[in-house]
Write a structure and sequence with these properties.
By secondary structure, this protein is of the alpha+beta class. It contains 20 helices and 18 strands. The strands form three sheets. A nine-stranded mixed β-sheet has the order 11-15-12-16-10-9-17-8-18, with helices on both faces. Strands 1-7-2-3-6-4-5 form a seven-stranded mixed β-sheet. A two-stranded antiparallel ribbon has the order 13-14.
Length: 751
Amino acid sequence: MNAFVLGMRLLWGSGRRARVRFLLMALGSALGVACLAAALTIPTIIAANDARVTSRAVVPGANKNAVYQEFLDPYGSQPLRRVFIGHKGVGPLPVPPGIRALPRAGEAIVSPKLGEILAANPRAAGLVPGRVIGTISPAGLGGPDELYAYIGTDADELSGATSLGRFGAAHTKHEVIDPSTLDILRFTLGCIVLLPLVIFLSVCARLSGESRARRLAALRLVGLSMRDTLRVNAGESVVAAFVGAMAGLIGYLGINEVMAWVGLPGLRWYPADGRPDGTTIAVCLVGCPALAWVVGQFSARRAAQSPISVRRTGERKPPKKYGMLLLIPGLGIISGYCLLSAMGRNPSGGSAGAVLVPGAVLMTGAGLVFGLAPITAWISRRLAGMSQSLPLSLAMRRTEVDPGSALRVVTGLVLLVFGASLTQGVLIELDQVSRRTAPVQEYSLPAAELSTRQRSEMTALSGVQAHGLAVQSWVATLEEDLPTIQGVVATCAQLAAFTKTTHGCIDGKVLRIEDPTFLFDKNARLGRNFPFLLSNGEKLNVSVPRDTVTIQAYDPSEFGGPSLLIPPSLLPQNAQLADARFVLVSPSDPTTVRAVLDGIGAVAPTVSVEPVGIVIDSLAQLTVIRSLLVVGMVLGLVIGVAAFVVSVADRALERRGQVTALALLGARAGTLRVVQVVQVLLPLVVGLGAAIVTGWLAESSYLITGGGAVHWDWDGLPLLFASALGVVLVAAVASVPMVRRHIDPEHIRRD
């Protein structure tokens, strides 16, 4: 305790510089803890959502008083869940959380968001038949934006009804994110947030390391024991970290209230969900000071063991190279998977890749961190020996003597670029499993439920490229096994928009469709006549022609399988095909798909939409994952930039004595600025170059073992190179004002 009190008295008695350093350490810790709390609370938000959704899940049972039937439909790009309750008796019924009683026939209870939609859009009233008598409270909803409704009806109107048992399932249902995907998300967020965060907190704990080491060496020389010397340093670091942790938690609480109100694309939560629990608070208030104590013990050990060498600026030991050994197994594993894929083999599947690749990614990232200092020292020594330039020689010799400072300056940014590569791979893999891999996306709607105006508005939506009709021929009775045929109503241009290739198409003529990827339709015999029912009750008779059009359809597709191409001009005026499907097509990127679905929901809110080849839940899940990964990248960027700024500023302050000595010897201001910029850029360029290469290999190995169609993310490389170049340019510009040529003998009085 005496050593701790001595450390605090020395801190406040060492002048303004010491107090400013303490304040910077606390502010840095506050920023780091706020980011840590945000990263740790993301799983808590998801778990709270899943818990409420599971507590309201309907479980079938032997209740004779009511039956139920659930419906899941897309409303735009959002999933809409409706539970129809059919009452059969007057006995007691279970009640789900969030409402007081189940609605009777002709009544409905809706979520607040769905209530807003019904009030703002009268055409959407068909989604919720009956009178809205109340809203569901937060206890019965996953989040504020959820579309959910309990609708009372007659039991006889529910064709697929099940006896109502209870509300609340034993196992989690309707998760926001699939459990296997959630594990991948946790691993990715750990790589892009938690690893740079540890580096950043370590940097904050070692601010003004040289000055503090000299002060501790002085205490050691005047008789303070080695253990008490370490306690003096650790006490200052721990207090700063604890004060920063408290401020960071308070700041995060304010940010959570704002973000819960604003929300993320695809995810909104209640403020209580995002408030840190006891474990998160303990990690922040205990883990951050504990890390500061460990770093303080490590950084002050040299001053405590050899104070004379510290006071006289003795020769430093070269950085250890053991950390580079982690690169060997890490790069070996991910390069091996990439080599197997390049040789035409498919190493996906099995449990080995699920264990080896994440382990290799962690070892590669750790190897980048620990191997940066010895690699930078080696390059600096070689460049200094070959260089004839004074600024370059000065910069390289300084970097050779103190390569460890490079670790503190650029590690956060290096890990950010490495994690960005991995994030791209995760998004590509999730994108492949969550939607169809074709370049186009189809939307199928029942044509009979659409008016002419609604069709016209849908075809004009942004992103919609073409439209057509898919229809099956009419049969008089279902009791007899009569031949039928499927056809599409479209022009040649429309047909080309729906298919990969089209050959031999002629507008205005009925053509027989041939697709080599589909089995031949035995019913499509030449000359056979098939009737198609029109909306006015008449029949449109179409004969199978001799002329053909050869196509290659996507799979799945409404245009894959039909045997007749019917030109729109063949349809009578003011008459439509009955029981036809109105099909739209757009590009398949998620942004366009969501925009088109939202547009369809605005034009025809009560019409059931089938996004061909995708599940609306998967699309919503992909939106949430993208939002969380973007949040992780933003947190990683904040941490990386903060670590860079703090480290560069700290280095500039620590080296004012050296700059003053060089200025007294006649060094020009331009020379000093070049030295400072080169000292910063060398480890940054080396680290970012290594991060791009190793990150791309790690991303490729992840995609290869994932078993998707995409193994090599060539499109992501230009973005990574452009980002790295931008970081280098900004770092160069930011390093220039850090050098001042002001000569102050106070800075070199001890030398």
